[in-house]
Design brief:
The complex is a heterodimer of chains A (about 160) and B (about 625).
Chain A (H helix, E strand, L loop, with lengths): L13 H13 L7 H12 L4 H11 L3 H10 L11 E6 L2 H5 L2 H12 L5 E2 L5 E6 L11 E3 L2 E3 L4 H9 L3
Parallel strand pairs in A: 1-3
Antiparallel strand pairs in A: 1-4, 2-3, 4-5
Chain B lengths: L2 H15 L3 E6 L2 H6 L1 H15 L4 E6 L11 E5 L2 E5 L4 H13 L9 E3 L2 E3 L6 H4 L17 H6 L4 H9 L2 H11 L11 H7 L10 E6 L8 H8 L1 H15 L3 E6 L4 H16 L4 E4 L4 E9 L9 H8 L23 E5 H13 L1 H5 L10 E8 L5 E6 L4 H8 L9 E6 L5 E4 L9 H6 L8 E6 L4 H15 L5 H18 L5 H17 L3 H5 L2 H9 L1 H8 L15 E3 L9 H5 L5 E2 L7 E2 L9 H5 L5 E3 L1
Parallel strand pairs in B: 1-2, 7-8, 7-11, 8-10, 12-16
Antiparallel strand pairs in B: 1-3, 3-4, 5-6, 9-10, 12-13, 14-15, 14-16, 17-20, 18-19
Helix pairs in contact in B: 3-4, 7-11, 7-14, 8-9, 8-11, 10-11, 10-12, 11-14, 18-19, 18-22, 19-20, 20-22, 22-23
Chain lengths: ~160, ~625
């Protein structure tokens, strides 16, 4: 899947940066160091925002586009942090026919988050999923694992209010 | 460590491993997921509470009977007892009733034809197997180098370093007939030979492919989790053979337990001087590093794997130059798969003739591990002599297809392989025999399919996977596999024509011949092989607009048998899209234009009135 740059504001702490610099120093002179550096950077920050990639680029004297190229190639590297609330809408056949695409659009509008990304305050991440096997409740959405069935566009606002 | 010290360590480890009663719990990922950790804890606690010091409890790797995990085995008085589907409570009962009470608990044992089998080794699942690569899996504690040394560990490395020349090592591996177990099937000795020139003058690398990515294959994980030292020892031997002093194991990040055990093993080997400088006082140096994948299937391809270790996007490179000439960091490199390495130490210790005696007559040398999955009674990892027939694997070892269904085909080699139809069930499985019938051994995934499997849908599944995993570097693979998938989707949707089948075949052939690496060159195989073996099924999809297996939703129709319907309205209430109409006590109807074929009505009906056609 195509990866999108995040709009979430970077909130790296000095401690995290110190750790990152340690990691970069540890791999100084090691051949093929970029993969392990990115893996450990992701362990520190939980994802690989462009700010972190920039630090790595500068300290390792590697072109940023090369690093970005690696970060987007491997599916385990994340450009978006998980939101505090992770919202998923099922786009399986049953849900789709019952209008889950409209629900998804409504949520996206309501939260100001594009599908597949995280809101700029880091509070919500939104994704579309394949069938989650709750067709009897179609259309279905989940928020941090809580399941909401028989969704309509009108209910979106009310339900999201619980997670403000 | 010297060879004498290794022998002393071996004797000490054997002595230390002795106990009146030994209890093992399978603690590979599969076992842990099934709940083996509480079982191990319960057993340890029971032993500690009893104050008995003659009982040893230890973790081991995977014995291979996946569906019966967690597995606990007890060795008492020279006898072996296997307990399956364990829980902490069951383990406590085994302790009190059997280990203390002397009465085996038959209800927790594996049953064959309803008769409990005490020792796993006597089951039909095990009887046909010969364990070489998996010899230690399920027997030794993978986190103890002592246990590995006690079972002849590092003796092969000692033997090559002190009594064989590098050329002799290569000759022995060559003579054993061992071929790559990761997919290509290239003779391992020959690969080593190609990389052996200019020893000591050129920097060389030994690499291990542990990026096991085929859906349905997990033998490499099992070896790494159950016997990591066997891979480390073999890589050092390979290093000596080609003149390399550095090795890399590229292991997928999705295998955290395997990574942890490899880290422990490498650390232990370094501490004992079995890795590092001047190994066994012979002046031979070998260092080993781990690199982790990050979720890209293409990195299982050898050149892509090396590009990834170099720290780049894991895209393949054109060959030639072959890795033996210009591989990792542009230096001569050999890359072998985990299972291949797991055979090396045994070949060195027992000889090429011994290895050549394992297989069925006239077949490729040795044994092969298969991951038996799909519609089969006994799911698991099985290591069998090359040349064992598919019939033996499915009917005897696998216990047949469950629920009285008919065996239809087996897919070997995952997304790079092909299918073997029921009519060829007596084919002896080895590299050449499978190539003749349009499939490959691949990494050893063996997915069994019954009459309810749609071959078009199956081909689509694998192609969907390769489309997702195509790295995008070369056009035939990036675009070609996409177009193939579109044609398959069209057929499955019921819009296919006979011309589409020809187009599919033509395009598949182009993608195979024009792609840069193994991924694209083999991606069309599932399509081509199902087209050859099950063309009538494709024809049924495009001409009759029917899916004979009843899988492809768009070609399905749910109907209510009026004479069976009691008008209970259960289906109408459950239907997510309101496609069912009818009144109480009167037969209902399904509106095909609304029906989304989710099957809820069929599952709900208690009277068998809903049918699929």
């Amino acid at each position: 899947m195509k990866k999108k740059m995040t709009t979430v504001e970077f909130r790296g702490t000095p401690e995290q940066e110190a750790k990152l610099l340690e990691v970069i120093a540890k791999y100084d002179g090691v051949k093929g160091k970029m993969m392990p550096i990115l893996q450990e950077a992701q362990d520190i920050y939980g994802y690989l925002p462009i700010e972190v990639q920039k630090i790595i680029a500068e300290k390792t004297e590697t072109p940023l586009e090369e690093i970005y190229g690696i970060a987007t190639f491997y599916s385990q590297f994340k450009l978006n942090p998980n939101g505090e609330y992770s919202v998923a809408v099922c786009l399986g056949t049953a849900c789709y026919v019952k209008g889950s695409a409209g629900v998804l659009e409504e949520i996206s509008k309501e939260l100001g988050v594009e599908v597949g990304s995280t809101s700029s305050d880091g509070k919500y991440s939104l994704e579309a999923t394949r069938c989650i096997g709750a067709c009897g409740l179609a259309p279905v959405m989940t928020i941090n694992g809580d399941v909401y069935g028989r969704m309509t566009k009108d209910q979106v606002k009310g339900i999201l209010a619980k997670y403000r | 460590m010297t060879t004498t010290e290794l022998n002393v360590a071996k004797a000490a480890a054997i002595e230390a491993g002795k106990a009146d009663v030994i209890v093992t719990v399978g603690m590979a990922t599969c076992g842990i997921a099934a709940g083996a950790a509480p079982v191990l804890e319960a057993m340890k606690k029971a032993v500690a509470d009893s104050g008995r010091t003659d009982i040893r409890v230890k973790q081991v790797g995977c014995i291979g009977i996946c569906q019966h995990e967690p597995v606990l085995e007890a060795y008492i008085g020279g006898e072996r007892f296997t307990y399956i589907n364990m829980t902490a409570e069951k383990a406590e009962r085994v302790f009190t009733e059997h280990i203390v009470g002397g009465q085996p608990v038959e209800e927790f044992m594996l049953k064959e034809k309803n008769i409990p089998v005490r020792n796993l080794m006597q089951t039909t699942f095990m009887k046909h197997q010969k364990r070489v690569a998996m010899r230690n899996c399920g027997n030794i504690d993978p986190e103890s180098i002592g246990e590995y040394i006690a079972s002849d560990g590092y003796a092969a490395l000692a033997k090559v370093l002190t009594s064989m020349t590098p050329d002799e090592v290569i000759s022995q591996v060559l003579a054993s007939g061992l071929r790559g177990r990761g997919g290509g099937g290239f003779p391992t000795g020959l690969k080593w030979k190609f990389a052996c020139s200019n020893r000591g003058q050129v920097k060389k690398y030994v690499a291990c492919n542990a990026d096991e990515g085929d859906p349905g294959a997990f033998m490499d994980r099992s070896v790494l989790e159950g016997d990591p030292h066997s891979v480390i020892e073999a890589m050092a031997i390979a290093g000596y053979a080609i003149g390399a002093d550095e090795g890399y194991i590229y292991v997928r990040a999705e295998y955290p337990t395997a990574i942890k055990r490899l880290e422990i093993a490498i650390d232990q080997a370094k501490k004992l001087g079995l890795l590092g400088n001047d190994i066994f006082g012979t002046g031979f140096n070998f260092d080993l590093k781990l690199r982790f994948g990050a979720g890209a299937f293409v990195c299982g391809e050898e050149t892509a794997l090396m590009t990834s270790i170099e720290g780049n996007r894991g895209e393949p490179r054109p060959r030639p130059p072959f890795p033996a000439v210009k591989g990792l960091f542009a230096q001569p490199t050999i890359l072998n798969n985990v299972e291949t390495y797991a055979n090396i130490a045994q070949i060195i210790l027992k000889g090429a003739d011994w290895y050549q005696s394992l297989q069925m007559p006239g077949c490729a040398a040795g044994t092969k591990v298969f991951a038996l999955t799909g519609k089969i009674t006994n799911t698991g990892l099985v290591e069998i002599p090359m040349g064992t027939t598919l019939r033996t694997i499915i009917e005897d070892i696998g216990g047949g297809v469950p629920n009285g269904k008919k065996f239809k085909a087996a897919q070997t080699g995952g997304p790079s392989g092909g299918c073997i139809p029921a009519s060829l069930i007596d084919t002896p499985i080895d590299y050449d025999n499978l190539a003749k019938i349009g499939s490959i051994i691949g990494s050893g995934g063996l997915i069994v399919m019954d009459e309810d499997t749609c071959m078009v849908d199956m081909a689509r599944f694998f192609l969907d996977f390769t489309v997702d995993e195509s790295c995008g570097k070369c056009t035939p693979c990036r675009v070609g596999t996409h177009r193939l998938l579109e044609i398959l989707d069209k057929i499955i949707a019921g819009n296919g024509t006979l011309e589409d089948l020809d187009r599919l075949e033509e395009l598949a052939t182009y993608v195979k011949s024009a792609s840069l690496c193994g991924l694209g060159q083999t991606a069309p195989n599932p399509v081509l092989s199902t087209l050859t073996r099950f063309r009538d099924e494709y024809v049924a999809h495009v001409v009759d607009k029917k899916c004979p297996a009843g899988v492809c939703k768009n070609l399905l129709r749910y109907r209510i048998l009026e004479d069976k319907c009691r008008g209970c309205t259960a289906c109408a209430r459950k239907c997510p899209v309101g496609a069912l109409s009818g009144t109480v006590k009167n037969p209902h109807r399904i509106d095909p234009s609304k029906c989304i074929k989710c099957g809820v009505c069929m599952a709900t009906c208690k009277f068998g009135a809903v049918v699929k056609e």
